[in-house]
């Protein structure tokens, strides 16, 4: 399985250079990516990612490996 990098559908700027509207657009896009990113990480790690404290520890241990 290939790990797919996140690529926003708009040109990226430094956060400090974004207007309030651009930052909000980026934030909303980022939040929409969460389910697919969790699905992709879960496929790699076989860890149940459920937003719990335990799953954060599990994903960190997976990452370190």
- Summed over residues and divided by their number, the pLDDT gives a mean of 85
The total count of strands amounts to 0
Q: Count of helical segments? A: 2
CA-CA gap between termini? 17 Å
Question: What does this protein look like?
Answer:
The protein is mostly helical and 65 residues long. The chain has helices at residues 20-45, 53-64. The protein is elongated, with a radius of gyration of 15 Å. The mean pLDDT is 85.
Summarize this entry quickly.
With 65 residues, the protein is mainly alpha-helical. The chain contains two helices and no strands.
Keywords, please?
single chain, 58% helix, 65 residues, mainly alpha
Summarize the helices and strands and which ones pair or pack.
Elements lengths: L19 H26 L7 H12 L1
């Amino acid at each position: 399985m290939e790990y797919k990098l996140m690529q926003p559908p708009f040109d990226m700027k430094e956060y400090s250079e974004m207007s309030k509207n651009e930052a909000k657009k980026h934030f909303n896009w980022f939040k929409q990516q969460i389910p697919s990113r969790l699905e992709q990480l879960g496929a790699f790690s076989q860890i149940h990612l459920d937003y719990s404290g335990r799953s954060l520890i599990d994903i960190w241990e997976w990452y370190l490996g």
